[in-house]
């Protein structure tokens, strides 16, 4: 079977639930899921189990990021080392700060 991953969305904001489906892994294999982020450390999502046909469907939560990131979700079979990736845009929460420099006269 050919490895494949599909997402319920092409982009997601932090805290948003998205569904990932995978095919082509080993029967009942443990699969680790991870966000691979551009210029940031990867974020481990956790592990899930494939069914008897090597498929899985899992709801996951998008991470909250400061800036928008062109990320990949990486699914790796822990027994087979089979690996599949799918791109997703993770929408960041921009924070705007205004700094006022206050000058106080001394004396």
Task: Write out key terms for the chains shown.
single chain, 107 residues, mainly beta, five-stranded mixed sheet, three-stranded antiparallel sheet
Structure classification: mainly beta
Query: Hey, roughly how much beta strand do the residues contain?
Result: over 45%
Would you count the extended β strands for me?
8
Spell the H/E element sequence: EEEEEEEE
Polypeptide structure, described:
- Residues 95-99 have low confidence and may be disordered.
- The chain is mainly β and 107 residues long.
- It is built from no helices and eight strands.
- The radius of gyration is 19 Å and the shape is elongated.
- The strands form two sheets. It has a five-stranded mixed beta sheet, with no helix packed on it.
- Strand 7 (69-77) and strand 8 (83-91) form a beta hairpin.
């Amino acid at each position: 079977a050919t490895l494949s991953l599909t997402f319920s969305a092409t982009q997601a904001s932090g805290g948003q639930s998205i569904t990932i489906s995978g095919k082509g892994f080993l029967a009942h294999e443990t699969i680790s899921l991870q966000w691979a982020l551009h210029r940031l450390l990867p974020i481990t999502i956790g592990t899930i189990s494939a069914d008897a046909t090597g498929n899985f469907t899992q709801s996951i939560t998008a991470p909250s990021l400061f800036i928008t990131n062109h990320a990949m979700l990486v699914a790796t079979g822990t027994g087979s080392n089979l690996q599949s990736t799918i791109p997703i845009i993770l929408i960041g929460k921009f924070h705007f700060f205004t700094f006022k420099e206050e000058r106080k006269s001394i004396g």
